[in-house]
Design goal:
- The radius of gyration is 13 Å and the shape is globular.
- The longest helix is centred in the middle third of the chain and has 13 residues.
- It is of the alpha+beta class.
- It has a three-stranded antiparallel β-sheet with strand order 1-2-3.
- It has three helices and three strands.
- Helix 2 runs antiparallel to helix 3.
- It has one domain.
- The model has no long low-confidence stretch (mean pLDDT 84).
Length: 75
């Protein structure tokens, strides 16, 4: 099990994404759009999505949405 997703949230409720022709990335989760990424951030995200496996893609999408840390994690 990954140290990043110990509770399996990304596997149980994964992010979905759609890349438009003009380079925007629409990110949704649970059937609802949660974020739109454009510009240089979108280019980096698209590159990360193409190069990674499914777990790496889910982590990249979580980081891009900002739904990654809520400051209650143990160190």
């Amino acid at each position: 099990m990954s140290k990043v997703d110990k509770r399996g949230r990304l596997a149980d409720d994964p992010f979905e994404y759609r890349v438009t022709k003009n380079g925007q990335v629409f990110i949704s989760r649970g059937g609802r759009q949660v974020s739109t990424i454009a510009g240089a951030r979108a280019e980096r995200l698209i590159r990360d999505l193409k190069n990674g496996d499914e777990q790496a893609r889910q982590l990249a999408l979580a980081k891009a949405t900002g739904n990654y840390r809520h400051s209650n994690e143990r160190r």
